[in-house]
Write a structure and sequence with these properties.
heterotetramer, A alpha/beta (277), B alpha/beta (139), C alpha+beta (349), D alpha/beta (321), B: 139 residues, alpha/beta, Rossmann fold, four-stranded parallel sheet, 4 helices, 4 strands, globular, C: alpha+beta, 2 domains, four-stranded antiparallel sheet
């Protein structure tokens, strides 16, 4: 029998510091055991429990796309004891992961549709995975529109890639920051209002939203107002988790467990859950 | 195998007892090498939890030392600590932790000699008790 | 049905011990719980509802998931002999079946190995359960609310009745039949013995409380999710974990690491939805920060969410939480209050 | 008029004079010999209130728990001697404003510990409990046991020296001052007669039972840290398992955190589902504090709790010479 509590051993291949305060770092992890890597099949939106032996585990969305190769990418914000310890890791160090856990963005349903990706802050991780995935087989999808907001320009993650996405002709990227800053050429304003201003068409479009709870809360009604039906709005939720396999009892929202029934939910599903927002 | 040696954790206040230990060192006063020192700002900083945790982690004894009454750098830290120790010690004895494993002293920055004497006494007391077993956590 | 004379009970327990690690109710310093026994003399045969529930046998308060150190990760060896339990009550047997729905696999993906909890499965999967009929139900028993009863045999391998001078044993599962089938210390039971059992069963059934209609419980509870009644009910709860720790079906847990130097172990320990830190995130955000939200979670989880997820309640009516609650927040009263909330006309709809 | 009748009368008066927004008392519980906390918000509910030996809950706990549900409200509260001391301590520690509470003292002769009853009956069905002076009769369908009252009283009550409130606005009867109680010394002597190794054996056996449910902490009116040291994880001070060294350290440190603040109401011991004799450590510490510093928790309403105070000339024979 598989033992889902035992982490897979990974090696830190590369660390990128994402912000000047050095609170956000992106880790590229390689499988130590090739077979384990082959068995690890995932899709954008899924997450892993990252394990520091002696400190514990924390859940992180997978930021890489399976279309990119064998490395797994995670972006970690320093917040608690486990994330603090992860920030001490150096390239070459060992780390454990358990996963892939949870469900994924509806990539099959997206085929032939336009995609509107809306993200905020350092929650852009699984959205990066999705975007890279879509761009990897670009022909399968219609228009790709991305709205990405951060408190200030420093707090966008994956800045190098943002530069590349900006110049691409086969997608639209709208960056926005909360309040004006000298030298900022993008948009200003919170994600929900920017979404309203840009008023992307809902026809044959699927909206995928991920960000801080408050951003999600205010963005979903904007999408509804723009005419998106509940079945074409997806969002990814976060809760404190331990086991990741639907047993330990803390991540539920109503009867749904974020770790196995989520983290990706359609608004249609969430409408039936009393405490979703 | 070599003879068992007690391991003692010494929690010393920054302003007096740590300086006293320092003086013992620079004055080349001999004392047993069985102690490991943790420096804290004041004996008032010493939570009984630190002491119990040290014993749990396998230290055979704990010495806590601060400034003499009246000399506290923070005016009254050691007085508050004294009340705490005054009830901690009988409580530990009450539950069956050998009293000599946890000891308190006041050592000033000028008392290098006294530091050596205190450490020697603590090490000898703990040596008599043998290895700590009661509140030590097994892996 | 077989008859086991009490004079040969010790022989029976010893036989059982050859193949199984045998657990039974044991009384230590006035407290009762399940412990390994190797003779009949150690067993407390009178206790109805043990203070600690038998979930501790299969899902201990703390257990090692694996050990780590310089040489990597190692899981502990699984003991060879499977577990047998003697003297487990009907409600508690059912609670184990319920826990098996949670730990055995994921209902959503029953075939997916990733959701099978190996620690639970190696203990529960091969266990042999000797359930006991409840001859003398207590005033805190309410198993009949949930389709149980003092003589309910669901989930047992062998059903046993204490008939005074002897025990009557009835195999329920194939595994149970296989074990007791050829035992020399058992004799086939006769007519008079079976009549006695029926009489005892009727007497026990008469002691059960009036049933509460729980047919619509899941929906009724969902409907009043946002009503103020939850604040009223939770006002006196002090959010300790006594109810959840003594509950035979509560199974929330935490995972922690315990290190000594470079060696250590990852442990699973019981946790409780009553504790505020249970759901508090590293950012400080807590989706169930209020006592009301936590009490509601406990009730909803047992009587509403579980129906949706597992098709049954996560409560067997054993009454332990009623006994241990330090503020006498009686779950039966709570349920009655909630289920009749709309009927009282306190809200529209 | 019995105490219950007087209590109800007092509650009605307080509401009709608009002196309180809520009144904390006890009402009949769901089990034989049990009571449950009652929050009265309307004088008309006064007739639900009771006071008798079933009323063990220390209601002061509701002032300090995280919900702080009575903040800003004028609260009336019925208190036994120990409960009153908890409240005094809460006032001393600025958790409760004296002006915002109306303290109603009730004369207490000890409360019954339901667990002791269950232990005596082996968990059998008790349908009726009758008190008659110093004896208590427990009746079930097939049995009847008569016990000495002391066998079913809460251990804290057997060692009580302040049966009645020391601070109150109304007292329903005649409040007694401090009484002597030799049970305190006896309980300590029993342990102190043991060798160090025997004491540890005793401690280990007792605290091995702990399942870490934290009922003791949560029912304690003096335990109100917004984050308990056992819940801290950075650093994590003590392990979360039922390893006996961790449980002993938890209980010792909790004991020290409530040193000079514990009123020995016995709520922790009555709440413990594992029946750990939690009170003994509290007794030891309380006696030590009384002996050394001449202070008892919850008696003074002014100044600071004893462990936050000091005198320069205190005895310090435990400091190495």
């Amino acid at each position: 029998m598989d033992n889902s509590y035992v982490p897979i051993r990974m090696r830190v291949e590369k660390i990128a510091v994402e912000d000047p305060e050095r609170n956000l770092r992106t880790y590229d992890l390689a499988f130590e055991d090739e077979d384990a890597g082959k068995r690890f099949n995932y899709l954008p939106g899924q997450f892993c429990e990252m394990s520091i032996l002696g400190k514990g585990e924390s859940p992180f969305g997978i930021a890489s796309s399976p279309s990119e190769g064998d490395l797994l990418k995670f972006t970690v914000n320093r917040a608690g004891s486990v994330t603090g310890e992860i920030h001490y890791l150096r390239e070459g160090d060992a780390v454990g992961i358990r996963g892939p856990l949870g469900n994924w963005y509806p990539v099959e349903k997206l085929k032939g549709m336009n995609v509107l990706i809306i993200g905020g802050g350092f929650a852009f991780t699984t959205l990066r995975s999705l975007l890279v995935y879509l761009l990897g087989s670009r022909g399968d999808y219609g228009d790709i529109n991305v709205i990405y907001g951060a408190r200030n320009p420093d707090l966008f993650i994956y800045k190098n890639e943002i530069e590349e996405w900006r110049t691409r002709e086969d997608m639209e990227l709208h960056l926005t920051i909360d309040s004006p800053v000298d030298g900022w050429s993008g948009m200003t304003g919170f994600v929900p209002s920017v979404t309203g201003e840009l008023a992307p068409g809902q026809e044959n479009t699927m909206a995928i939203v991920c960000g801080p709870p408050i951003m999600i809360k205010f963005t979903l009604p904007v999408l509804t107002e723009l005419g998106f039906p509940d079945e074409r709005i997806y969002t990814s939720l976060e809760r404190r988790m331990k086991c990741g396999i639907g047993k330990c009892g803390r991540c539920n929202i109503g009867s749904r467990y974020v770790c196995i029934d989520g983290p990706v939910f359609s608004l249609a599903q969430l409408r039936n859950i009393p405490e979703a927002f | 195998m070599s003879e068992w040696q007690p391991r003692i954790l010494a929690i010393l206040c920054n302003w007096c007892s740590y300086a006293g230990a320092d003086l013992a060192g620079v004055s080349r006063i001999q004392y047993p090498p069985n102690i490991r020192v943790v420096r804290v700002p004041c004996s008032g900083r010493v939570d009984p939890l630190f002491i119990l945790k040290s014993l749990q982690a396998g230290f055979d004894g704990v010495l806590v030392s601060g400034c003499h009454p009246g000399d506290c750098h923070y005016i009254s830290g050691n007085y508050v600590a004294r009340r705490r120790f005054a009830i901690l010690k009988p409580l530990l004895e009450f539950v069956g932790i050998e009293p000599d494993r946890v000891q308190f002293s006041w050592i000033s920055a000028g008392e290098g000699e006294r530091f050596a004497t205190v450490v020697t006494k603590v090490v000898e007391d703990v040596r008599k008790l043998g290895p700590s077993k009661r509140i030590v956590k097994k892996a | 049905m077989y008859r086991l004379d009490k004079g040969r009970f010790d022989e029976f327990i010893r036989l059982l011990g050859r193949e199984y690690r045998t657990y039974a109710p044991v009384r230590t310093a006035g407290r009762t719980g399940f412990a390994i026994v190797d003779s009949a003399g150690m067993i407390d045969t009178d206790v109805l509802v043990t203070d600690m529930s038998p979930k501790e046998i299969f899902f201990p308060p703390s257990e090692t998931l694996f050990r780590y150190g310089r040489n990597g990760i190692k899981t502990d060896e699984v003991p060879e002999r499977p577990i047998a339990v003697w003297g487990i009550r009907s409600c508690d047997v059912r609670s184990l079946s319920m826990l098996d729905r949670v730990f055995g696999s994921a209902v959503q993906m029953p075939e997916d190995d990733r959701f099978k909890d190996p620690y639970w499965n190696h203990r529960y999967g091969s266990s042999l359960l000797f359930g006991s009929a409840c001859i003398d139900p207590s005033p805190t028993c309410f198993c009949n609310w949930f389709g149980g009863g003092p003589f309910n045999k669901d989930g047992m391998d062998v059903f046993t009745v204490d008939a005074g001078e002897y025990y009557l044993l009835e195999p329920v599962s194939g595994k149970g039949q296989e074990f007791i089938g050829g035992l020399a210390c058992l004799a086939p039971a006769g007519e008079s013995e079976l009549d006695l059992v029926s009489a005892i069963a009727a007497e026990a059934a008469s002691r059960m409380p009036e049933e509460e209609d729980l047919k619509e419980a899941g929906r009724k509870l969902s409907d009043i999710f946002d009503e103020p009644v939850w604040s009223e009910l939770s006002a006196k709860c002090v959010n300790c974990g006594a109810c959840t720790f003594c509950c035979p079906t509560c199974h929330c847990f935490d995972i922690q690491d315990e290190s000594q130097g470079s060696e250590g172990r990852r442990v699973r320990i019981w946790d409780s939805c009553m504790f505020p830190i249970f759901t508090r995130e590293a950012s400080g955000h807590n989706p169930r920060a209020l006592s009301k939200e936590r009490v509601r979670q406990r009730i909803m989880h047992k009587y509403s969410y579980s129906l949706e997820n597992y098709g049954e309640f996560l409560c067997t009516g054993c009454g332990r939480c009623v006994l241990v609650c330090p503020v006498n927040l009686d779950i039966r009263d709570v349920l009655r209050r909630l289920l009749h909330y709309r009927a009282e006309g306190k809200c529209n709809g | 008029m019995n105490v219950t009748a007087k209590l109800r009368e007092t509650i009605r008066e307080l509401f009709s004079a608009d002196k309180v927004d809520v009144f904390l008392a006890w009402e009949e519980g769901s089990l034989p010999m049990s009571s449950t906390p009652l929050f009265i918000t309307d004088g008309a509910q006064a007739d639900r209130a009771i006071f008798d030996p079933r009323c063990g809950n220390n209601l002061s706990v509701y002032f300090t728990k995280d919900s702080r549900q009575f903040r800003g409200k004028r609260v009336g509260i019925a208190v036994k001697g120990c409960d009153a001391r908890s409240l005094v301590l809460n006032i001393q520690e600025n958790q409760v404003l004296r002006d915002m509470v109306v303290i109603v003292g009730v004369p207490c002769n000890g409360v019954i510990d339901g667990k002791k009853i269950r232990r005596r009956t082996g968990g059998k069905q008790v349908t009726e409990v009758m008190e008659n002076g110093d004896s208590v009769t427990l009746k079930g369908p097939e049995f009847s046991i008569t016990l000495d009252r002391s066998e079913v009283l809460s251990s804290s009550c057997l060692r009580c020296v302040h049966p009645d409130a020391t601070e109150y606005d109304v007292f329903l009867g005649e409040a007694r001052a401090e009484v002597g109680n030799e049970n305190r010394r006896k309980a300590l002597d029993e342990v102190e007669a043991l060798s160090s190794a025997q004491r540890w054996e005793r401690t280990r056996k007792e605290y091995e039972k702990c399942i870490r449910c934290y009922a003791c902490r949560n029912v304690c009116p003096s335990c109100y840290c917004s984050e308990c040291f056992v819940d801290q994880n950075d650093p994590q001070w003590i392990g979360g398992t039922c390893d006996v060294t961790d449980t002993v350290i938890f209980h010792l440190i909790r004991n020290l955190h409530v040193a000079g603040r514990c009123v020995e109401c016995g709520a922790c011991a009555r709440a413990c589902p594992m029946d750990i004799d939690l009170l003994l450590l509290n007794l030891k510490t309380a006696e030590e504090i009384k002996k050394r510093f001449g202070d008892t928790a919850g008696i003074r309403i002014d100044g600071r709790p004893v462990m936050a105070e000091f005198r320069e000339d205190e005895k310090q024979e435990f400091i190495m010479g």
